[in-house]
Design brief:
The chain is mainly beta. The protein has one helix at residues 2-22; strands spanning 27-39, 46-61, 64-77, 86-98, 105-120, 129-141, 146-157, 164-176.
């Protein structure tokens, strides 16, 4: 199943941008620092993470975009945990829908999936695990090519023996890359 998921993700990463370009949509780059908050059984050993991420969106219709997303998080251990800090690297694809695309101040929803690698301090990365994410955001367009945003995303990573979950809370800057 993991191999099928890997193949599907790779196909989406390769075909998604080409499909979006067929519609000559806008392209944007977003940079976003933030915090991660562990939830569920994951929070027994880890609490707050510092994170950094980037995403590229390709508009496919008015108010609708598909994109690629990558992020890096470093979760601190809780006082009771005997484990070292955990790093999580994530790459994935997502869809985004603006609820009021004509407004300078707007809200949106996002949903996607990807590959997550987790690592306790020490050599090597873990095997890739698949996960999904979804959330909401608010953005303000200060010009035709520049916007600021904040977003809250829930991530569910399908690890063994039990899944791990965390919220990502971030602020960011979006830059329009397409020429008018």
């Amino acid at each position: 199943m993991k191999r099928f998921g890997s193949a599907l993700l790779c196909a989406g990463i390769l075909a998604g941008p080409a499909w979006a370009q067929k519609y000559a949509g806008d392209i944007t780059l977003s940079l976003q620092p933030g915090l991660g908050v562990a939830v569920g059984s994951f929070s027994n050993n880890f609490d707050i993470a510092v994170e950094a991420g980037a995403q590229v969106d390709f508009a496919v219709a008015d108010g609708t975009a598909i994109g690629l997303r990558g992020s890096y998080r470093m979760f601190n251990k809780t006082d009771q945990s005997k484990l070292p800090a955990m790093k999580i690297t994530q790459f994935g694809v997502h869809g985004k829908r603006m609820f009021n695309p004509e407004s300078r101040l707007g809200t949106y929803g996002t949903l996607g999936g990807g590959v997550y690698w987790s690592k306790l301090r020490g050599p090597g990365l873990s095997d890739p695990n698949f996960g999904g994410f979804g959330g909401i955001g608010v953005h303000y367009e200060s010009s035709d090519r520049l916007a600021v945003f904040t977003e809250a995303i829930y991530n569910a990573v399908f690890t063994e023996p039990s899944p791990m979950g965390f919220f990502s809370l971030s602020v960011g800057l979006t830059i329009g890359l397409s020429e008018e």
